[in-house]
Amino acid sequence: MTAIALLGSGEFEPWARPVDTWCAEHATASSDRVLVVPTASAPEGDETFKRWGKMGVAHYKAIGLAPEVLDLRERADASKKEIVDAVQGARHIFFSGGNPGYLAETLSGTPFWEAVVAGVTSGETALGGCSAGAAFLGTTAPYVAGDSLDHWTDGTKLLPRAYVMVHFDMLNTYVPGLRDMLLDMRPENTIAVGIDENTALYGDGEHWQVQGSGSAWIGDGELSPYPDGATLDLRLL
User: Fold this and answer.
1) Are 115 and 88 in contact (CB under 8 A)?
2) How far is it, in rounded angstroms, from Cα 47 to Cα 52?
3) Helix (H, G, I), strand (E, B) or coil at 193
4) What is the CATH number of domain 4-233?
5) Going residue by residue through the chain (237 aa), what tens digit of pLDDT does each one get?
6) Can you spell out the DSSP letters for 65-100?
7) How far apart are CA 231 and CA 14, in angstroms?
8) CA distance linking residue 176 with residue 98, whole number of Å
9) Under a CB-based contact definition with an 8 Å cutoff, are residues 26 and 208 in contact?
10) Is the distance from CB of 59 to CB of 12 less than 8 angstroms?
11) For residues 30 and 23, what is the distance between their CA atoms, to the nearest angstrom?
């Protein structure tokens, strides 16, 4: 069974523990290893990268797993044997927040990403991502520079029908009208997947549930909200 979790924000916080526990329970790997991957924060510097890694390690230890931080900061790292080999047998891999476009451009088409996709689609490894770590799994990903959008890049398309928007309930506080602007940019033949802060949409790629303080907003036209506890059938994988 494939196990995927998309978080709008709030990775490594107590509210997300049941989601990460669900992911670990629905992977078939025999180990309890978790790879914490803060790659999306690498452009912000070493201190930020290490801070996310430290938070991830503490979070997964608290739920009885065996986490390690993967020192993957640039595209060349994604071809290193020790980093690619780390994927084998991992129960869960989690991508934390930062720059979605940078994350997509760093990982797409690399031996590391190919290993991740193989582990996830076989059911051996669960996959989680928050903010940038969720957005880069869909069709497109914004490459941000400071507080501005620099350009759009292709997402990894692990979820080839999904146009993933994170921090969905807060977008208009960043830039007035940003939510509608992003919705207007939705590529044709995709499903809009908006995920509020401190909220997760998780499932097997076709059957999903929602947990958190906000909602998941889904649709190919007008969006429908799915609050905490809701379930839905939606083929994204």
Assistant:
1) yes
2) 9
3) strand
4) 3.40.50.880
5) 899 999 999 999 999 999 999 999 999 999 999 999 999 999 999 999 999 999 999 999 999 999 999 999 999 999 999 999 999 999 999 999 999 999 999 999 999 999 999 999 999 999 999 999 999 999 999 999 877 789 999 999 999 999 999 999 999 998 899 999 999 999 999 999 999 999 999 999 999 999 999 999 999 988 999 999 999 999 998
6) -EEEE----SGGGGG-HHHHHHHTT-SEEEE-SS-H
7) 22
8) 21
9) no
10) yes
11) 14
Q: Which two tokens stand for residue 160?
A: 């080839």
In this structure, what are the phi and psi dihedrals at residue 119, rounded to the nearest 5 degrees?
Answer: -65, -40
Residue with tokens 């992003």: 182
Structure tokens at 143: 């490459």
Strands 4-7 and 33-37: unpaired
Query: Taking the domains of the chain in order of start, what are their residue ranges?
Result: 4-233
Q: Which two tokens stand for residue 184?
A: 């207007």
State the Cα–Cα distance between residues 137 and 127, nearest whole angstrom: 10
Helices 100-107 and 111-122 pack at an angle, to 10 degrees, of 100
d(Cα 41, Cα 38) in Å, to the nearest integer?
6
Q: Return the bridge partners of 233, or none.
A: 207
The length of the chain is: 237
Q: Which of 174, 117, 126 is nearest to 147 (CA)?
A: 174
The residue type found at 138 is G
Closest alpha carbon to 214 in 201, 228, 203: 228
Q: What pLDDT, on a 0 to 100 scale, did the predictor assign at position 149? A: 84
